[in-house]
Amino acid sequence: MDTATRTTSSSRSVLHFPAKCDELNFTHQIGSISNTSLNDVENAINIAHQAFLSWKDSSIAERQNCLKQAADLIFQKKDELKELLISEHGGMLWEAETDFYLGSGVMSMYAQAPDDLLIPKEISEETGWIRIHKRPKGVISAIVPWNMPIVLTMMKLGPLLLAGNTVVLKPSPFSALALTQLLAKIAAVFPKGVINVVHGDADVGNILTSHPLVRKVAFTGGTATGAAVMASAAQTIKDVTLELGGNDAAIILEDIDFQSILPKLLKGVFTRSGQICFAVKRIYVPKDKLDQYFDLFCEEVDKYKVGHGLNSAANFGPLNNKKQWAIVQKFIENAKASDQCEVRELGQKLNPEQWDNGYYVLPHVVKTLDNSLEIVQQEQFGPIIPLIGYETVEQAIEYANDNEQGLCSSVWSDNIELAYDIAQKIEAGSTFINSHSFDSLQLGMPFGGIKQSGIGRELDINETLKSYLEPHSIRLIK
User: Fold this and answer.
1) Domain ranges across the chain
2) Which of 426, 429, 458 is closest to 444 using CA atoms?
3) Which stretches make up the Aldehyde dehydrogenase domain (predicted)?
């Protein structure tokens, strides 16, 4: 397999999803995609390796030109593929459009990266010189999830291709059709074999993470799978970039008008039905205002409408798959069974007669003082959010840090200096002040987690490029 346009079938995955919002009285098949045989995965890696032998010597200008063409293609294909993407992953129209916009922006950013990040550096000495070359690693395996597949793929392709590597990429089985069609177009602007796409489950992933010709693994997904990826890559001492789960804390200080920040806060909670690694998943509020804030929060959430992603009346859509739906249902059941919290189911069903045709969940809001509850300590990845009361700011920071994950976080206050001081004490890869959503991100800003939320950074041109390059020092002593 030499480009994204070719696969060989060992089995066939048939995907069934709700149709457009004006056809919601049935479920239909939107397409099928072939799983790649293990032999063809092996072939894809070998082809990527052969392509690397010439691509690594290509000029920086040639690579930048290919990336620019890719950025333009992503933007051009947005209107053609966005509805297919929605049918696959259950998101809203604006969310799918954002995925394409961000993906195009990422590729454009790397297309404009300064040349000096890739050219050799020379250090002169009295006794000679040192020249430090920056070599591409080789074949990179990239494994991407279903929730924002376009931008998460480009966050890997942009830097690895600019650095002179080749790639074998595996999309998620839950969101592969639109991405694969897009990659077929992108692959065509690069030399043959530079971009390769395979499909499958864990058996395919195991080859991609353990094969001796693969020199680095770039993975975005859950923490448990990330640990398995890391263990597999260790067999051949591969470098890894892991962007894993998040259980992001938002700390609300008592000086801010809670009602005024609700639109921004709710966007951070419920975009993609809460199925975003850096969504707000824990909200800490002053204990003496917990009841008041809980009521205000629920009042706004109760206005939400849940339905198909192409229904303009919907605020958010269904969960992506049965497994995730079952996980979220378990969170809700356990929270309701606990005597340490109050749970409210809110919002309205759009087309309720069709809810059996999708993994729909109404928003749930939880009130508690217990930071040790499962609903607080574990990433929900769905439309359920706890509000936790704290006694002091120091306790809020302690609560926020008392978690094995550390992707993003936020502090909300009218006192920016105080918020900044608190932000520095939070254990996370990023902390936002008075925002916590896609709007909080900026191309060029390092993105990634600490603790069990990952290894490495993406989006930062300098740091990310370094992770796809090997320094080669050459020294002359006269």
Assistant:
1) 9-244+453-477, 248-442
2) 458
3) 28-472
User: CA 449, CA 405: separation in Å to the nearest integer?
Assistant: 8
Tell me how crowded residue 82 is: count the other CB atoms within 10 A of its CB: 23
Q: Which of 88, 243, 379, 427 is catalytic?
A: 243
For residue 460, with 0-12 CB atoms within 10 Å meaning exposed, 13-18 middle and 19 or more buried, which class applies? middle
Name residue 342's beta-bridge partners.
Answer: 367
Q: Is the pTM of this model over 0.90?
A: yes
List, in order, residues 6 or more apart from 175 with CB less than 8 Å away. 85, 88, 89, 145, 146, 147, 149, 320
Burial track 212-248 (b if 16+ CB lie within 10 A, e otherwise):
eebbbbbbbbebebbebbbebbeeeebbbbbbbbbbb
CA neighbor of 222 nearest in space, from 337, 438, 380 = 380
DSSP conformation class of 23:
G
At 28 the three-state DSSP class reads: strand
Tokens in use for 42? 């092996």
Give the span between the Cα atoms of 20 and 26, in whole angstroms: 10
Show the CA angle centred on residue 62, arms to residues 60 and 64, nearest 5°. Answer: 70
Pairing of strands 166-170, 139-143: parallel
CATH of domain 248-442: 3.40.309.10
- The dotted CATH code for 9-244+453-477 is 3.40.605.10
Rounded-to-integer distance, Cα 256 and Cα 472, Å: 52
pLDDT per residue, tens digit, the chain (478 aa), is 333 333 333 333 333 333 333 343 335 677 788 899 999 999 999 999 999 999 999 999 999 999 999 999 999 999 999 999 999 999 999 999 999 999 999 999 999 999 888 999 999 999 999 999 999 999 999 999 999 999 999 999 999 999 999 999 999 999 999 999 999 999 999 999 999 999 999 999 999 999 999 999 999 999 999 999 999 999 999 999 999 999 999 999 999 999 999 999 999 999 999 999 999 999 999 999 999 999 999 999 999 999 999 999 999 999 999 999 999 999 999 999 999 999 999 999 999 998 988 999 999 999 999 999 999 999 999 999 999 999 999 999 999 999 999 999 999 999 999 999 999 999 999 999 999 999 999 999 999 999 999 999 999 999 999 999 999 999 999 9
Give yes or no: 391 in active site: no
